[in-house]
Write a structure and sequence with these properties.
single chain, alpha/beta, Aspartate Aminotransferase, domain 1, Aspartate Aminotransferase, domain 2, 2 domains, four-stranded antiparallel beta sheet, 14 helices, 15 strands, 41% helix, globular
Length: 392
């Protein structure tokens, strides 16, 4: 079946954070913009997911739910089929969103004053999860060279040596840079953490969309030793675009680690899942492989468009080649202006809203993040608005 992703869906007035006038004014001081920021696609969910939602809605009673065996089997089959990662039912724990789960993980495994490492530039909620629980964030800056990012393993080891360093929150694939870490890179990171008894927490919510043949590898699949020392946070929300359902889960092979987190979830009363979350995941993981393959090709087309447009119209802008997901990290440092100045121009002259690199943890000055998980026409409109800011 051929799927079409060019449909423009009106999202204003739907309580969408990305498009809400109220929220845009809060974030950007104006609502008269084309929003290309938050990691939320402007593409309809797959038809089987929509059908599953309609079936639930038609029941007319939305009471407490539970997690059936079919949910676990869908998760197991999906990860083996798509990621060559064989997991077991008892390793899986449904949670209510990856960001909230990171808070519970810090609560469960860190004490006040402990330190948590993460790579930068990094996803801002990682920092909030650490600092809201009176722990200290240790930044391990990525090495940016020749338009791409690499891990600084020497610096990571120095940070991991700190006796108060208890955890690494690792983004795999990496947000915002789009890097897909290789198995060798993952092994190197894990060996450092194992050596210094630093718990590995891997955020893998972007791994379902690997671009241009890149195949994200789960950290826990690298070796049995590594799997025994990590928490893997997973979600269908990014690939299938139903983040509002909070249908995330963790995969934890180590029983002691798993029980400790489950006890923390119980303390926070994380119990019955969203009534739509389980049917949505089952439909996505059992009926939507072809849809996702076609979506990935469509996103590659959008990325190709950005690359060509910048080369022809805006050579001062450099795209960091994304290896995964629908987010592009854009190097704007050659413009010779600050991010604040650039955002002001884009918002009030170009009327387009991208994500300011400074919204991420450190090392974001001179960068923007662009969301191209949208119809091709929307990408072109955003690029033309941006180009209009720099032509006289």
């Amino acid at each position: 079946m051929n799927y079409h992703f060019d449909e423009i869906i009106e999202r204003r007035g739907t309580l969408a954070r990305k498009w809400s006038k109220e929220n845009l004014v809060k974030e950007f001081q104006t609502d008269d913009v084309l929003p290309m920021w938050i990691a939320d696609m402007d593409i309809a969910c797959p038809p089987p997911v929509v059908a599953a939602m309609k079936k639930v809605a038609s029941q007319r009673i939305y009471g407490y739910t539970f997690v059936p065996d079919s949910y676990y089997q869908a998760v197991i089959d999906w990860n083996e089929r798509r990621h060559h990662w064989r997991i077991r039912k008892n390793w899986i724990t449904l949670t209510h969103g990856t960001v909230s789960t990171l808070h519970y993980i810090v609560q469960a495994f860190c004490q006040q004053g402990d330190k948590v490492i993460t790579q930068t530039p990094g996803y801002q909620p990682f920092q909030r999860a650490v600092e809201h629980h009176e722990c200290e964030l240790l930044c391990n800056p990525l090495i940016y060279q020749d338009g791409s990012y690499e891990l600084d393993l020497d610096d990571l080891e120095e940070k991991a040596k700190d006796p108060r360093a208890k955890m690494l929150i690792f983004c795999n694939p990496h947000n915002p840079t789009g890097r897909v870490w290789t198995a060798a890179e993952l092994k190197s990171v894990a060996q450092i953490c194992l050596k210094h008894n630093v718990l590995l927490v891997s955020d893998e919510i972007h791994k379902d969309i690997g671009l241009y043949g890149n195949s994200p590898v789960s950290l826990a699949s690298v070796s049995a030793d590594i799997a025994d020392h990590c928490i893997i946070c997973v979600s269908p929300n990014k690939a299938f675009n139903f983040g509002g359902l909070k249908s995330s889960y963790t995969v934890i092979p180590n029983e002691a680690i798993r029980i400790r987190l489950q006890e923390q979830l119980a303390v926070n009363s994380v119990t019955s899942p969203n009534v739509f979350a389980v049917p949505a995941l089952i439909a996505a993981y059992t009926e939507c492989d072809e849809w996702l393959d076609q979506l990935t090709a469509y996103i590659e087309k959008n990325v190709d468009t950005v690359r060509t447009f910048l080369a022809e119209r805006l050579p001062e802008f450099r795209m960091v080649e994304p290896e995964s997901t629908y987010l592009i990290w854009l190097d704007v440092s050659r413009l010779g202006i600050t991010n604040s100045e650039l955002m002001n121009v884009l918002l009030f002259k170009g009327k387009v809203a991208f994500e300011d690199g400074n919204d991420f943890i450190s090392d974001g000055e001179g960068f923007l993040r662009i969301n191209v998980g949208c119809p091709h026409a929307t990408v072109l409109e955003a690029l033309n608005r941006m180009a209009g800011c720099f032509t006289t």
